[in-house]
Backbone:
């Protein structure tokens, strides 16, 4: 049964025009960010290297595809999950609104498998969207701006050669994928709790904004800084430290997966308990 | 007995919505559930279909199929962005029913829908959506069909077509069908037995013709020269038009009156029973 | 009066005895370098600056006498502004005097220590100090205090006594470390130059190894 339910959820998602609007929106956003990153990038490099100009000439172009992909990464981790949350939460709120949930429950379908299939398809959809985002970012950036060293300022000026930069950027996207799954599934859980489309959107957006604010907040207790979910969503940045702290990255990702499982479990339990009628 | 619900009760907060309701339906039988808005019809159907849990009471269903009951609650909820075939395909696959083109075509044909139409269901009329809803309810061949207000929103032609479909499903395919409505005429024309529900309780149940007949205390008669009738003077009556009068007469006496009027040379052009709703929905004493 | 005038004359005489138009050894070094018409070599560069992390870089260097040195690399590289004046053009472009400061020990060997002081205001350096290997006529160390670009120290090592070009070179310099308060490569920062604070000058070094020389001599 689960296979059929997974197929049905994927089928419905792909058949909705809203999904394709979201994919188009991601591309448009990416294009805008790419253009703005190009103009910002020149100023950014100028500032970073300003004090070195006294002592050095520079050979090679730092304003290349790798820097632009890095700037895309930085810019998209708010806008992108926003689009994802709107699409994913609709997977359940639309069913409440249109009454199709009732029609489904009138068929011999188990509630827990039905909602679980939504969580699974939401995860796969999120991964595919990140993949599309990453592939298009790499394609456009490299095609138009080429590849060379990447310069990143995290406490120090870190230079990475082209090959290493590409690897780190790919790893950053993969890691960022986990954060995106977290927000997607959180929005699905909000949909289960609130049922209403508009309420779910408001709560989801608020959740995203608050998470981003809390990310920058320095808590007094170090344990909160290490374990609190909001602090884990920037883990991708660690890939741009000169020496990659693999143990911290692994710990953060495991914790985030734990939060994902927790949020999903809450949604499944609540959905299972509530009467559909 | 294919399906029966016994002593079903349900409350929402302090509001008692159903109280000790008994209902049953046999194969090839159409049972009507008649009640005004808010009487508890939809709640009872949701309980029968498993969408709500009753506070007390039991449901028995002797059907052993993958899907014992199929149904529509209120209006059929469909995926508006999918076509009829795509809707059927989705609902068929999630319950393990065949989603082959041939089988889906059969389901569409059974309810009188075009098999080649590809546009989204949002473009369909209410009647067509109802029929598609029934097709979905029929997936996996349930032995019981529960339809909540299926005629609601349909035009006269749509009502006729749907009524014919329901009759066909019961009489030719042997389904047990429970159908609810607040419109007496619809229930009268389609159901074999009727349950009258009021304020969450079954106030009357029995053969449809008898139950409705018991509440039919007036008839509206039309005929040329009706005013000239002397027989009519034996009954309490009011002329509403030159040729039409409302007569205080029950259904059992009507055939005799018609015969006597004919004896006077007065031939009725129409005879419409008028149901006394208060009588129909009154709690049995 | 006569005493102070005599003292002044003595001082000037001493200075002129020590100062020369151009030190003879320096000229021999220049002549040796002028014999190299052109060369190409591969460079391996390592940067040692406290606020920079940069991997080892590879580049090629092309030198043509009379022209600026050219670098070529697939990567981004930092090329120190000083240290590649193999023909000593920057000294000889404008008139200067040299002052012989005697012998100095450096890494266990003794070298001739001279100062180069430009006579022209157009020179872009204030003073240079050179350690010259007078046996092989080459420079092992130079300290240049520029007018606008701070101070540079270049140390050179040679493979053999006959080598005119260095096998490796270290360029030391002063550089200001820039502290940027926010991680402004981040998502929501605007570039605000007023927010940038400086944290004073630090010393940095670049290590260069030369390999696979292709030299064209005159």
Residues:
């Amino acid at each position: 049964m689960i296979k059929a339910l997974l197929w049905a959820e994927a089928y419905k998602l792909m058949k909705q025009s809203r999904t394709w609007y979201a994919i188009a929106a991601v591309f448009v956003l990416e294009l805008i960010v790419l253009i703005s990153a190009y103009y910002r990038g020149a100023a950014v490099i100028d500032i970073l290297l300003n004090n070195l100009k006294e002592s050095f000439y520079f050979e090679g172009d730092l304003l290349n595809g790798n820097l632009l992909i890095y700037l895309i990464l930085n810019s998209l981790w708010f806008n992108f999950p926003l689009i994802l949350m709107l699409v994913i939460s609709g997977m359940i709120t639309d069913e409440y609104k249109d009454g199709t949930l009732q029609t489904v429950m009138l068929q011999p379908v188990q509630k827990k498998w039905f909602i679980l299939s939504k969580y699974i398809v939401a995860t796969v959809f999120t991964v595919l969207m990140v993949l599309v985002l990453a592939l298009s970012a790499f394609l456009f950036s490299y095609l138009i701006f080429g590849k060379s060293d990447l310069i990143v300022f995290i406490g120090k000026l870190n230079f990475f050669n082209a090959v290493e930069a590409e690897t780190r950027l790919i790893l950053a996207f993969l890691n960022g994928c986990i954060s995106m799954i977290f927000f997607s599934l959180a929005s699905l859980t909000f949909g289960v709790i609130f049922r209403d489309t508009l309420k779910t959107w408001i709560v989801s957006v608020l959740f995203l904004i608050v998470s981003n604010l809390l990310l920058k907040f320095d808590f007094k207790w170090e344990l909160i800084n290490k374990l609190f979910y909001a602090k884990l969503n920037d883990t991708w940045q660690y890939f741009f430290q000169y020496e990659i702290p693999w143990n911290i990255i692994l710990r953060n990702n495991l914790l985030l997966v734990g939060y994902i499982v927790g949020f999903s479990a809450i949604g499944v339990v609540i959905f299972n308990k509530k009467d559909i009628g | 007995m294919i399906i029966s619900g016994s002593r079903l009760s349900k409350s929402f907060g302090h509001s008692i919505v159903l109280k000790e309701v008994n209902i049953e339906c046999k194969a090839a039988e159409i049972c009507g559930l008649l009640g005004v808005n808010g009487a508890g019809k939809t709640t009872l159907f949701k309980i029968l279909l498993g969408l709500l849990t009753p506070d007390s009471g039991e449901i028995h269903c002797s059907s052993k199929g993958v899907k014992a009951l199929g149904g529509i609650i209120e209006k059929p909820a469909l995926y508006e962005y999918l076509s009829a075939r795509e809707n059927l395909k989705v609902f068929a696959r999630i319950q393990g029913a065949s989603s082959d083109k041939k089988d889906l075509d059969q389901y569409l044909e059974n309810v009188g829908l075009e098999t080649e139409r590809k546009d989204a269901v949002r473009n369909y009329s209410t009647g067509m959506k109802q029929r598609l809803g029934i097709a979905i309810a029929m997936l996996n061949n349930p032995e019981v069909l529960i339809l909540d207000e299926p005629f609601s929103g349909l035009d006269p032609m749509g009502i006729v077509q749907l009524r014919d479909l329901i009759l066909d499903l019961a009489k030719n395919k042997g389904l047990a069908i429970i159908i609810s409505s607040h419109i007496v005429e619809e229930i009268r024309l389609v159901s074999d037995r009727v349950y009258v529900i009021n304020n969450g309780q079954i106030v009357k149940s029995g053969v449809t013709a008898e139950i409705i007949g018991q509440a039919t205390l007036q008839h509206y008669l039309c005929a040329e020269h009706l005013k000239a009738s002397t027989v009519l003077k034996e009954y309490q009556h009011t002329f509403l038009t030159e040729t039409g009068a409302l007569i205080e007469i029950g259904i059992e006496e009507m055939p005799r009156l018609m015969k006597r009027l004919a004896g006077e040379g007065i031939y009725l052009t129409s005879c419409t029973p008028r149901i006394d709703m208060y009588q129909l929905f009154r709690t049995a004493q | 009066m006569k005493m102070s005038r005599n003292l002044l004359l003595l001082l000037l005489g001493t200075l002129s005895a020590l100062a020369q138009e151009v030190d003879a050894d320096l000229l021999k070094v220049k002549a040796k370098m002028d014999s190299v018409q052109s060369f190409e070599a591969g460079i391996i560069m390592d940067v040692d600056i406290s606020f920079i992390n940069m991997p080892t870089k590879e580049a090629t260097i092309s030198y043509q006498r009379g022209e600026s040195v050219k670098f070529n690399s697939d990567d981004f590289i930092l090329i120190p502004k000083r240290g590649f004046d193999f023909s000593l053009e920057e000294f000889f472009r404008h008139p200067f005097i040299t002052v012989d400061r005697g012998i100095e020990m450096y890494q266990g060997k003794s070298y001739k220590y001279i100062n180069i002081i430009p006579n022209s205001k157009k020179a872009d350096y204030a003073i240079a100090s050179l350690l010259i290997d007078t046996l092989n006529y080459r420079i092992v160390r130079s300290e240049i205090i520029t007018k606008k670009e701070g101070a540079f120290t270049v140390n050179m090592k040679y493979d053999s006594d006959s080598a005119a070009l260095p096998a490796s070179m270290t360029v030391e310099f002063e550089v200001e470390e820039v502290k940027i308060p926010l991680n402004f490569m981040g998502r929501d920062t605007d570039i605000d130059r007023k927010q940038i604070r400086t944290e004073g000058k630090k010393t940095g070094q670049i290590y260069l190894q030369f390999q696979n020389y292709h030299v064209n001599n005159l």
Observations:
- Chains C and B do not touch (no CB pair under 8 Å).
- The longest strand of chain C covers residues 197-217.
